[in-house]
Amino acid sequence: MDSSNSNEVVHDFSPFFRIYKNGKVERITADTEPVPPSNDPLTGVTSRDTVVSQENSLSVRLFIPKITDPAQKLPLLIYIHGGAFCIESPFSPLYHNYLADLVHKANVIAVSVQYRRAPEHPLPAAYDDSWAAIQWVASHVNGEGPESWLNEHADFDRTFLAGDSAGANIAHNMAVRAGTMNGLVGVKIVGVVLAHPFFVSNEPDSLSPVIEFIFPSVRIYDDPRINPAGAGAAELASLGCARVLIFVAGKDVLRERGVRYHEALRRSGWGGMVEIVESEGEDHVFHLLNPNSANARVMMEKVVSFINHGH
Question: Which residue intervals define the domain Alpha/beta hydrolase fold-3 in the entry (predicted)?
């Protein structure tokens, strides 16, 4: 056997991943070294990791702000990371630092979900894992779940879903499931934050090949999970929350998808309140890459306000 063939690239989905003839997957946007959970002495935010499902290697990173009152109940944020369903994690510096900052500023408990990633685990694995994590969170409603922070300090009547890019896509789909499956007894999803959501349009584009590859079982343009503004208009009306906050960025190739989603949601007959905020002159997920920029600070203030005035 010619071993040189094993280094042959059979699928190249730059800038996300390549697959080699020997089956190896190379993530091109290099996954940075994971950041361990921590205790920040400046803010008092503490984080820790816990396994939700050994079977699916499903885990979450939890964040809690400084607790001054043992009886205090805080809003609960379930966050789903982006990365085109195939890169990044809650343990990367990008997401660890963002969640720690948000938890400090909004005074919330956060659960950051590590779903199985494509291409090793094609969609709908990310959706199923995220739903399993949300159901795990819901198992704490009576104060008898495995995670003491959630048992003692989470206000399940003030639960929020949020995500960026592919994570925003997943967060939307989790809100649809919550609205149509009645699977979250005791959990009230007040609001959903979608930052630069990763949806497809009705026509193929530069992102279509990777989505078609990692979601092989569906026609993506006809699937409401990937194209909610086109294929999923009926599902939008059953979105299981009262408020939605959408962020788009002026230079982002996904900008129009977020705008279409906003318009479709308004037309759908859904009875909630939806707001869209555009960051002019900015690109995709700029708020994660440059969190100290003026526009990133404006975004953070908007999210904090949305959570703290969302009940």
Answer: 77-287
Ordered strands of the 25-27 beta sheet: 9-13, 17-20, 25-27
Please say if 284 is a catalytic residue: yes
Cα–Cα distance, 78 to 8 (Å, whole number): 40
Catalytic residue among 59, 165, 268, 279: 165
Q: What is the DSSP letter of 34?
A: P
DSSP label of 145: S
Contact call for residues 232 and 224 (beta carbons, < 8 A): yes
252 catalytic per annotation: yes
CA torsion angle 261 266 268 271 (round to 10): 130
- CA–CA separation, 101 and 293 (whole Å): 14
pLDDT, mean of residues 12-17: 90
d(CA 151, CA 226): 34
Please give the model's pTM, rounded to 2 decimal places.
Answer: 0.95
Alpha carbons within 13 A on the beta-carbon side of 63: 31
164 bridge partner residues:
195
Catalytic-labelled residue, pool 81, 252, 262, 279? 252
Residue 90: phi and psi, rounded to 5, are: -65, -15
SS3 category, 221: helix
Contact, 155 vs 75, CB < 8 A? yes
Q: Measured between alpha carbons, how far is 181 from 91 in angstroms, rounded to an integer?
A: 30
Contact (CB, 8 A) for 207 and 256: no
pLDDT digits (tens, 9 = 90+) for 95-134: 999 999 999 999 999 999 999 999 999 999 999 999 999 9
- Quote the CA–CA distance of 236 and 186 in Å, as a whole number: 22
Mean pLDDT of all residues in 138-153: 96
Catalytic annotation present for 129: no
What is the DSSP pairing of strand 58-64 with strand 46-53? antiparallel
The residue type of 162 is: A
